[in-house]
Amino acid sequence: MEPEMLPKDKAEDKFGEAEPDQGIGQIDHVKHYGNRSVTFFGSLATAASLAELVSMFPTAGGQYHFISKMAPLRIGKGLSWAVGWITTFGWIAVAASAPFLSGTMIQGLLVLNYDDYVFQRWHGTLIFWVILVISAIVNIQGSRVLPLVENLSLGFHVVAFIIVLVVICVVSPTKHVPEFVFVDTINNSGWGSNSIAWCVGMLSSCYVVVGYDGAIHLCEEMKSPRTDIPIAMIGTILINGTMGLGFLVAILFCMGDLNSALNTTTGFPIIGIFYNITRNSRSATALCSTVVIMAGLASIPLLTSASRMVWVLARDKAFPASSWLSRIDESRQVPTIAVTFTSFLLGLLGLINIGSTSAFNAIVSLAVFGLEISYLIPICLLLYQRVMSPESISPGPWSMGRYGIGVNVLSIGFLVFTCIFLLFPPYQPVTAANMNYASLVFGAVCIFSGVYWLCKGRWVYEGPVLPQFED
Question: Where is this region: Disordered (predicted)?
């Protein structure tokens, strides 16, 4: 029996030229392990630094609350305001990325399975909105089941990883040689320099581990945040970093023809890779469905963390309509208005997909850049205090002790390096369709925040509302 027609062949009459890649894995333009290793150790150092801060100051505001405790008085209020806005919109972008991935991958699977389906980018936006609505309903109506959803997500994540890893290793008809996996360099980005393309490819490596501060923004709802949150943050990097490296090695050995995967008209090379491995559209769909389900489940807790940032920023009077957004639904003990408003903002981000073929890249860039900037500033202040006035630091139960300076320096170096390249366009030559619009959105947020600060914020914002810390 002959294998099914390749995805590209099935759809080329409907598409003309293939849509530029949208998925996580294809943001990498140079196939190299270096950026994975750099990301793993840099993120581990950053998580350890933030874990030390939250062990000292367990507050839902996280980064901008840390700044209010450590920054000099003359700049503390304005700096915490700026970082609060950056953190909030970084989290909004992170919360948009998961349903966007799930929704657009569903669209890619429609291309793979139905010959008569005509691809339109607005279809992906509609699916994205549906997932957002479901996530908002669960956050508002089913807040008591959120721990169950998170445990289910973790269990499915681990089980699906094992199943997919075993399947691709067993059924793959061909295996690449070790030189292809560990030595060869492939640059399909259009950047003339492999070094620049390697740096731009750091985005996907950073994205899959960023967001480890999510537990911080729920710490006021936890019993032992000073010890539990550091364990959760470090554990996240160790587990996901190890699993991600194993999955990457397996994919590279088993992926089959690289060009057919990159040229797939589904928009997701990972779909083409799974098809190369299984030679069957239904089997490839089953493997891809694990990614769709994981991203869909992740959309719920990501919306939780993002809405808590909006709520706490409003509680501190650093957001427009603060008295309205900071309300708590007494019957459910949930900031219902903040959840609804955050979902609305996420929906607006989905409109980028209609006009840009690199919309997912823009959202991911905005998410990673915003969060990394919010990590960088408080860690710089922590290092400054460590060097200039170590007696002013009162460590919590989780402390790095004498290793703190080295870990902070490693974290700062990593964050500065990656932030430089996160806003670069993913492809050359740059066009209006494939431009990285993250810089435009980030700049607009900063301008709005600055104008609001000058017009009203500096008069009403007194700094974060901090709980009374125990000695």
Answer: 1-22
